[in-house]
Amino acid sequence: MELWVKINGEKKKYQGSFQAVMENLVKDGKGKEVQILCMHAPPRERRRFKRELRWYNKDIIKTASAIATWFYIREYRKIRRRIKELKNRAKYLSKGEIMYNPRIMKEVENLKSKLSEIEKKIEELKV
What we know:
It is a single chain. By secondary structure, the chain is of the alpha+beta class. α1 packs across α3 (60-90), α2 packs across α3 and α3 runs antiparallel to α4. The protein has a three-stranded antiparallel sheet, covered by helices on one side. The protein contains four helices and five strands, in the order ββαβααββα.
């Protein structure tokens, strides 16, 4: 995706994945006047961006924030599902007690730390 914007009279180009462009736009344009000049993207991303732009009454920063947040929430849910699967797989009964496989639980802890990082990023993107 390629997006040309004008932030407080200064032209700027964002290029990369849809998520990265939206994140950078929110970081650079927070509290400033932002105007879209040109956008080159696949049809699917373009439709999504236009739909969100209409939803937020042509407020570009809120739109970019919502799209970037959506990507992080999707990743957050994926990691939570993975943790749940790993915990179910790590359980085993031994003499009536539930035991957890320590190797799998270490991986669960790593995933939980990723969840906290994602939560921080979502908080940063809120407008």
